[in-house]
Amino acid sequence: MQSYTIGQAARLLGVSPDTARRWADAGRVATHRDEGGRRLIDGKDLAAFSVEMGQGGLGEEDGSYTSARNAFPGIVTAVKVGDVAAQVEIQAGPHRLVSLLTREAVEELGLEVGMQATARVKSTNVHIDRT
To answer: Fewer CB within 10 Å of terminal CB in the chain, N or C?
Structure first.
């Protein structure tokens, strides 16, 4: 069975190695050590953990409700506002998401570069939730 280092698992989960290490320390995902002393996560355990994470079992305490289940929490890296439309870019782990929305929506959400936001993807649409 394939095993993953904490760093590899972090990249696959879209989080920092420190976050993956904290989750392992807290017992959220099981680890074992190889001959060299590195902590490893079995592939089956990592797969189960990623499914739990994808189903919202590891966060989302904010109480927001949405029908769009593919959530990409990240940081706003660009906001381009025109007269009517706007473009918002979010970096979510290794993923760069771009959403075209109304200027009014950007203003109502108060979206600015550097703030946390969640891109929610449903079909071919990207919905932005302020977090």
So the answer is: N
